[in-house]
Design a protein that fits this description.
The chain is α/β, with parallel strands linked by helices and 205 residues long. Helix content is 36%, strand content 16%.
């Protein structure tokens, strides 16, 4: 079962796009040391392959925490825009975070959800978004009015550029089933240290 064949009703007109290509386009729009939190698996593999920035944080091993971590960074550093890159399966495990984001309403947070309708890393089992769950409708129902499906690549570029000017915003994207590009270096200590340096945070002894 693939998103080219099925998908949430609200996404049926959205083009199926390539996650890595869109990740590169997204990174190309980052001009102000924006922080980016990549969810586990392909979301952060593609972020890593798009160019290692000290402002990137690569999730390892814990599903559903990209948006909560990004929310924490956005609240801690309101002058910095923060982007969360999350997969559909991971978001479905942590849907409550959407209501929390809506309640806190940080203007400097953008959430991008890559939806291929699969738990791709664990064997390609279909997620709920492959048939019934519309992640944009769920986000809107959680209080995130500025949530929408990207119709195609140009629409994604436009939506992301607008999101960088104010939020919170959620952009959902139907993606194909191609595997992530590259593999993130799995060194949690180094990932944390680089991210703290990229955010200008000094570690206390």
């Amino acid at each position: 079962m693939t998103m080219t064949q099925t998908g949430a009703v609200g996404a049926h007109n959205a083009k199926v796009m390539n996650r890595f290509e869109l990740t590169k386009r997204l990174v190309g729009q980052l001009k102000r040391d924006e922080a980016v939190v990549g969810g586990i698996g392909n979301a952060n593999f593609d972020l890593w392959a798009s160019g290692q920035r000290p402002q990137n944080f690569y999730m390892l091993g814990s599903m559903g925490l990209a948006i909560p971590i990004a929310l924490g960074v956005a609240l801690a550093q309101p002058q910095r825009h923060v982007v969360a890159l999350e997969g559909d399966g991971s978001l479905l495990m942590q849907l409550g975070c959407l209501a929390t984001v809506a309640m806190q309403a940080p203007k400097n947070l953008t959430m991008v959800v890559w939806d291929n309708g699969l738990y791709q890393i664990t064997g390609g089992q279909p997620t709920a978004s492959a048939s019934a769950a519309d992640l944009v409708a769920i986000a809107r129902g959680s209080g995130l009015a500025n949530s929408t499906w990207a119709a195609d690549e140009d629409d994604f570029d436009r939506l992301f550029a607008a999101a960088l000017k104010g939020g919170p915003s959620l952009i959902a994207v139907r993606t194909d089933n191609k595997p992530g590009v590259g593999t993130t270096d799995r060194d949690p200590v180094q990932i944390r240290a680089r991210f703290m340096q990229g955010l200008g945070v000094k570690r206390t002894p």
